[in-house]
Amino acid sequence: MAPFEPADADYETRVRESFARQRIMATLGATLGRVAPGEVEILLPYRPELSQQHGFFHAGVTATIADSAGGYAAYSLYPADASVLTVEFKINLLAPADGERLRALGRVRKPGRTLTVCDIEVFVEKAGREKPCATLLQTMMRLDGRPDRPAG
Amino acid sequence: MAPFEPADADYETRVRESFARQRIMATLGATLGRVAPGEVEILLPYRPELSQQHGFFHAGVTATIADSAGGYAAYSLYPADASVLTVEFKINLLAPADGERLRALGRVRKPGRTLTVCDIEVFVEKAGREKPCATLLQTMMRLDGRPDRPAG
Amino acid sequence: MAPFEPADADYETRVRESFARQRIMATLGATLGRVAPGEVEILLPYRPELSQQHGFFHAGVTATIADSAGGYAAYSLYPADASVLTVEFKINLLAPADGERLRALGRVRKPGRTLTVCDIEVFVEKAGREKPCATLLQTMMRLDGRPDRPAG
Amino acid sequence: MAPFEPADADYETRVRESFARQRIMATLGATLGRVAPGEVEILLPYRPELSQQHGFFHAGVTATIADSAGGYAAYSLYPADASVLTVEFKINLLAPADGERLRALGRVRKPGRTLTVCDIEVFVEKAGREKPCATLLQTMMRLDGRPDRPAG
User: Fold this and answer.
1) Do A86 and B93 touch (CB under 8 A)?
2) How far does B128 lie from chain A, in Å, by closest CA?
């Protein structure tokens, strides 16, 4: 994969500030990991409060951190005055999300002026070993002239 | 759409008990609405703790209740000793989830012995008016001989 | 579903002319059926030359007419100087496409300035009876100022 | 990605014979390239008869060879008496399929007893240079005890 050039040198600050405004992330207990141009990682430790009926991470929780990981991967390449919107994504669950931690790794597959396509991989860690538990293909939209950061 | 015959007369109890074991639903504040054969509704009032960076419901939260609405629509048609697993879903976001409440309506499109395909519509209510905010196409898998309910 | 107002009164001519330029349609033997604002139908009689290894319509053939049915449903609502591009679609195969004819019915689910979301249903007719064999959820993009019709 | 062990040593013959029975492939002019355990390549030279309205490969043609590339990647890992069925796939079009040849590369992402998840990349070659034009995420189903090869 080609390395990406961020349009805004301050991309990491923008990503971290926007993530901090996603209150669902604190509600779930998710934190931002590595932020690089076109690549963003989100981590989520297990709690029973995040579970489906068998005690594993709910697929929607997996989808939530994956959607943000892909969204911020796209956003990291945007100019400073643009914001980001999820158009759609598809998720395949590859294995039960049974473990102590999820890690979502979002990567830009194809950047574009209006639409950016991202791949997201989600891994579940159990007893110190990580394995893939979900894969997503996602389309993000750039909204120019609408900074993500609230005015004021 | 053809009406569906549930394989187990006690389907509603099974759905409601399984939903109650999905601890993420209580964490989000989601409740189960109508449960009919092949059709299940989930409701979720707004709280800032569920939001993305602009204050709307996060797309992953929308996906979470939609995934369960479709999953339980499939599960409502299963025999008593089967459990349900999400294979995959695709979600299109149709409008910002900006409002006081989400309502996800999951419906079986095509039941099958192993795989069931569901449609899920999600509506956002604002100032007493509902509009569609997301649509999903989902594939669920039936696991026979593995009751959802934990042995005890 | 709300009825749609076409932006260009001449939408049907535009759709029929563009379809006639899709040479794959003649290669497969597909014809355009009903064209209404936001709704387009494509028909395809069976020939062994369209088959997968068991003699049924290949899933890609089903996807081909479905993609065009959805694309032209979106295009029917566009202004005269715009063209249409498939961003992505997801297809679920609901039953073997075993029969004498396919019928794809594309419908706009949510029109938008840039992106339009469509539902497409594909039916297979066998011995005079039609049944659903595939369902698609598709995202189309509008390119303004780039008429579909070649200059000259 | 882990290398895969084929369940049937004769996997390549089975894949090549089944591909030869997909009559749509000859109709389009597609040929089978490399066949390895869990990885299958399909090639398709351009002809105007395969085009959409602007003269490029139709997205459905891209989807057709991609679906078979992924399907045969899954099938290459199956036991000899099993056949393969597409459950669903999602395709993102990354660039116009404008060129002299398409190449679809299907790879198993996650093999399973019943369901196998595949990634497919499609490249378009123009003036001797290849670039990605589509990416797919696909779910295939294994039907045991139903050999692909017709009896007799």
Assistant:
1) yes
2) 25
Outline where DSSP puts E strands in chain B.
31-36, 39-45, 83-93, 101-110, 115-126, 129-143
CA separation for the pair A53, B75 (Å, rounded): 13
Cα separation of D63 and D68, whole Å?
9
Q: Is residue C26 part of a domain?
A: yes
For D60, nearest residue in chain C (alpha carbons):
C64
The CATH number of whichever domain residue B118 belongs to comes to: 3.10.129.10
Q: Which two tokens stand for residue A54?
A: 């068998």
Whether residue D28 lies inside any domain: the answer is yes
> Rounded to a whole number, what is the distance in Å from the CA of C88 to chain D's nearest CA?
4
Cβ <8 Å between C115 and A90: no
* Residue range of the domain that includes D41: 11-143
pLDDT in tens, chain B (152 residues): 558 999 999 999 999 999 999 999 999 999 999 999 999 999 999 999 999 999 999 999 999 999 999 999 999 999 999 999 999 999 999 999 999 999 999 999 999 999 999 999 999 999 999 999 999 999 999 999 988 876 65
**Option in C94, C117, C132 nearest B94 (CB):** C117
CB A31, CB A22: distance < 8 Å = no
Please give the tally of structural domains in chain A: 1
Nearest to B148 among A18, A53, A59 (CB): A53
pLDDT at site A149: 76
**What is the SS3 string spanning B108-141?**
EEECCCCEEEEEEEEEEEECCEEEEEEEEEEEEE
What is the pTM for the complete model shown? 0.97
Q: Is residue A137 part of a domain?
A: yes
> Between A and B, how many CB-CB pairs are < 8 A?
113
How large is the ipTM? 0.96
B79 domain-assigned: yes
Measured between CA atoms, how close is B66 to chain D, in angstroms? 19
